[in-house]
Amino acid sequence: MSTNPAAASIEPERDLKIPRHIGVIMDGNGRWAQQRGLGRSEGHRAGVEAVRRIVGLARDYGVECLTLFSFSAENWRRPPDEVRFIFSLLRRFVASDLDKLDQSNVRIRIIGERDGLERGLRGIIDEVETRTRDNTGLDLIIAFNYGAKVEIVNATRAIARKVAAGELAPEEIDEATVAHHLDTSGLPDPDLILRTSGEMRLSNFLLWQSAYAELVFVPENWPDFDESVFVRALRTYTERDRRFGGIRT
Length: 249
Ligand code: FPP
Prior knowledge:
- It is globular, with a radius of gyration of 19 Å.
- The protein contains seven helices and six strands, in the order E-H-H-E-H-E-H-E-H-H-E-E-H.
- Strand 3, helix 4 and strand 4 form a beta-alpha-beta unit.
């Protein structure tokens, strides 16, 4: 099933359930680097390789939608050099991989706050989205300068503006209204949220959308993410009993 020859030894079970939408908190780049006596940048660089692996795996296994938490609204608290480096990685990733992703029919959407990003980067984001807009394969969502609480605040403001303008009555506001005003409008909610490096929290990632997601935490640092980790996470997901508040029938 995999196109990765290095992982050919892994035999995924036939009865694995494949989530429609996987959200990934890519954590542990810094620790991966530190364990090897390398600078944090090397961890992020290795993290990009893992991004390439998970995009290929998601496509191969038939996942419809993959959201990667690449830079959080809180990550600005890191040293400026590290922030600059992560930004440069996104730029370089687009420069080196956009053609291939486009040819592979991947549709890319970037979610998060665009204000606060420099104009050059905003231009790149626009280009990536416009270029891949009509693709019909994997939906790759890159959460960049993203924070779920800000996303919900922005949605609330947009809805309040419609109410103030008389376009919407407060009683008409329902879950669908809110979902429609989030950055992820039109996408299915994540079925699985996967976080690497053993940390067990959501860190302001897709809070509204993850209301019924299965949370799976794996001990590997993000740069060590490969097909064996992916299949193990899918197996855990498959074994979960998703009841959405109901009871097992
Ligand atoms: C978390 O590890 C990782 C990040 C905050 C950055 C993730 C960015 C990339 C993988 C590259 C850019 C993305 C794309 C799509 C090209 P950490 O630094 O928090 O690790 P630590 O907790 O061990 O310090």
